[in-house]
Specification:
By secondary structure, the protein is α/β, with parallel strands linked by helices. The protein has 12 helices and 10 strands. The strands form 2 sheets. It has an 8-stranded parallel beta sheet with strand order 1-2-3-4-5-6-7-8. It has a two-stranded antiparallel ribbon with strand order 9-10. The longest helix is centred in the N-terminal third of the chain and has 16 residues. The protein is globular, with a radius of gyration of 19 Å. About 4% of the residues have low confidence.
Length: 316
């Protein structure tokens, strides 16, 4: 389990291609993050940046034992996570992965050309059972990403190993007020992605937090940026955060968390009501589709994920 509450995630390389320039930028930003005090690096096969991560870990001068490396396998490997793990190890050039995650509960066909239905084989439970055999000297722990109470309620009774983390979209407009205590009760650490409210990867307003007067006012009262405010709010709730930035200055700034008052925490907690709800996952362009007239992400509806009930009430 991550010991540090503040971590860094590796941004996907431009167009998913590891150009020489982007590789160097990613590598150097990770080296800078590690030398600035970060000790958890989050990446994924789909980011096309594992090679840069491994190189940065080796160049940083920080002992490998002090660094937690998380990576995630993509959905066309649900049938063979052991092979996916070997691919990640080869790309990273490291002797072991600290935490290996199932990126989504959704499976693709092995050729990556077809989104499978939620009931198709392999189910995420079957994939998890295969992941359990990966735990050992080359894979210290396993976890999940983008899981909800619904999917975990199905997974956990069949699991011999409890996921060490669940990495999910979580920010003030999608705070996981039910999901966070659920996971903590089960002994699963929440790691939040898009804690600052998103960015250009999403079709919806990804700047709703950074530019909102509410967050700007509370940030000014604490002499910090709105980004640091968003991170501090999450960490104060017992959540690990993985801010994503290629700016060396912002990397240094993001680790300087502040302590918020109870009143400030409550005001941010209520932002989903006073400002409105925002689920960035709804607008991931590359994964969007439709099934039986309903919008989907990777052929799963909001009800399949457990994000909403049939009446549209948010469940997480």
């Amino acid at each position: 389990m991550p010991e540090k509450k503040i971590c860094t995630t590796v941004f996907p390389l431009n167009n998913g291609k590891a150009s020489t320039k982007s590789h160097i930028e990613v590598r150097d930003s990770i080296v800078h993050a590690l030398r600035s005090g970060y000790r958890l690096i989050d990446t994924a096969q789909s980011y096309k940046s594992e090679e840069a991560v491994g190189e940065a870990v080796r160049l940083s001068g920080i002992p490998r034992s002090e660094i937690t490396v998380i990576t995630k396998f993509w959905s066309h490997w649900h049938h063979d996570p052991a092979q996916a793990m070997q691919i990640s190890l080869d790309a990273l050039g490291l002797d072991y992965i600290d935490i290996f995650l199932m990126h989504w509960p959704c499976a693709f066909s092995p050729d990556g050309k077809e989104f499978l239905s939620p009931s198709a084989n392999p189910t995420y439970v079957e994939t998890w059972k295969l992941m359990e055999s990966c735990v050992g000297p080359r894979c210290k722990a396993i976890g999940v990403s983008n899981f909800t109470q619904k999917t975990l309620d199905i997974l956990l009774p069949a699991a011999s190993i409890i996921p060490v983390v669940n990495q999910v979209e979580l920010h003030a407009l999608n705070p996981g007020s039910r999901l966070v205590p659920y996971c903590h009760q089960k002994g699963i650490q929440i790691i939040s992605w898009s804690t600052m409210g998103g960015g250009p990867d999403f079709a919806s307003n990804g700047q709703a937090i950074i530019t909102n007067p509410l967050f700007q006012r509370i940030a000014a009262d604490n002499n910090c940026s709105t980004g640091v405010l968003a991170l501090s709010w999450a960490v104060q709730r017992g959540i690990s955060v993985i801010p994503k930035s290629s700016s060396l200055t912002r990397i240094e700034d993001n680790i300087k968390l502040v302590t918020l008052t109870e009143a400030e925490m409550k005001e941010i907690d209520q932002a989903q009501t006073t400002i409105g709800k925002l689920r960035l996952s709804d607008s991931i362009r590359s994964l969007a589709g439709e099934r039986d007239g309903q919008p989907t992400i990777m052929n799963w509806t909001k009800q399949d994920f457990g994000w909403e009930d049939a009446e549209g009430n948010w469940l997480t």
